[in-house]
């Protein structure tokens, strides 16, 4: 299967990706995770992306399209993939269509993580991540076994620099202005499934499984 996950910051894209990628053996291509890795490795691309990310603005289409195009060439992505956080603009969606056409494949489903903005601050402020794997936890909704420590590796968890109330506001603005139109783009193709993303984590997983079955 080839899936796209679209939703505002904190809506649960990364959390559900981690579950379905294992169940369906899909490769998980998370634009934000790849960008954060480039920023912390201080690659030329990371240096270019950092300023926009710190402000909660979108990184330029060219940079992100380049990363995704490269990542999709991995042999493990041939059977199927989850695009988490890409495309986020209509221009990115059009570029993706061109890439897929070249490969002779199509997107099966677009999962739209519908959720009220008001819920997202609590999601974001309680989030702790394990940067190397992209696993995320939540102090209230999905606590790690030992506070501040990754369940799998025992390594320390960190909070994301852009997970402040002020930066969340600008991330939400970018979402509504630039990414919401992408949902309409795919609605016209008849492949969007809308999820109740404000529900508890396991309920959302059930909805995702139903859509994919
Ligand atoms: P990115 O990393 O993609 O951030 P985002 O879209 O803002 O999404 P998040 O990762 O914050 O949220 P999520 O939906 O994955 O939530 P999660 O599952 O962790 O992008 C970061 C930045 O990179 C962007 O701002 C931009 O600058 C740049 N960028 C990325 N892609 C780009 C692109 N295509 N073009 C241009 N720029 C780009 O869940 C959140 C928390 O809630 C967790 O703690 C989790 O445990 C908890 N939780 C999850 N589900 C539930 C539930 N159902 N109930 C209760 N708690 C839950
Ligand atoms: Zn995420």
How would you characterize the overall build of this protein?
The model has no long low-confidence stretch (mean pLDDT 96). This protein has 213 residues and is α/β, with parallel strands linked by helices. A five-stranded parallel β-sheet has the order 2-3-1-4-7, with helices on both faces. Strands 5-6 form a two-stranded antiparallel ribbon. It has a domain at 2-116 and 179-207: 3-Layer(aba) Sandwich (Rossmann fold), CATH 3.40.50.300. It has helices at 13-24, 31-40, 44-55, 61-71, 90-103, 120-125, 165-187, 201-212; strands spanning 2-6, 27-30, 81-84, 109-114, 127-130, 135-138, 192-196. Helix 4 (61-71) runs parallel beside helix 5. Strand 5 and strand 6 form a beta hairpin. It binds BIS(adenosine)-5'-pentaphosphate (AP5) and zinc ion. Residues 7, 9-15, 31-32, 35, 52-53, 56-59, 64, 85-86, 88, 92, 123, 126-127, 136-138, 141-142, 171, 199-201, 204 line the site of BIS(adenosine)-5'-pentaphosphate.
Short description:
This is adenylate kinase. 47% of the residues lie in helices and 15% in strands. The protein has helices spanning 13-24, 31-40, 44-55, 61-71, 90-103, 120-125, 165-187, 201-212; strands at residues 2-6, 27-30, 81-84, 109-114, 127-130, 135-138, 192-196.
């Amino acid at each position: 299967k080839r899936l796209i996950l679209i939703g505002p910051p904190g809506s649960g894209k990364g959390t559900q990706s981690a579950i379905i990628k294992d169940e369906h053996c899909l490769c998980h291509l998370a634009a934000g995770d790849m960008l954060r890795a480039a920023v912390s490795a201080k690659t030329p691309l990371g240096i270019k992306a950092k300023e926009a990310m710190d402000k909660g603005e979108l990184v330029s289409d060219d940079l992100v399209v380049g990363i995704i195009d490269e990542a999709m060439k991995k042999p493990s992505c041939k059977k199927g993939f989850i695009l988490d956080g890409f495309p986020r603009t209509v221009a990115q969606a059009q570029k993706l269509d061109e890439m897929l056409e070249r490969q002779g494949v199509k997107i099966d489903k677009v999962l739209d993580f519908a959720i009220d903005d008001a819920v997202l601050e609590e999601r974001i402020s309680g989030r702790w991540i394990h940067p190397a794997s992209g696993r995320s936890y939540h102090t209230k909704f999905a606590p790690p076994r030992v506070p501040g420590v990754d369940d799998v590796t025992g390594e320390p968890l960190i909070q994301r620099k852009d997970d402040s109330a002020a930066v969340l506001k600008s991330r939400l603005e970018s979402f509504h202005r630039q990414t919401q139109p992408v949902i309409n783009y795919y609605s016209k193709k008849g492949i969007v499934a809308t999820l109740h993303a404000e529900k508890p984590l396991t309920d959302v997983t059930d909805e995702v499984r139903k859509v994919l079955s």
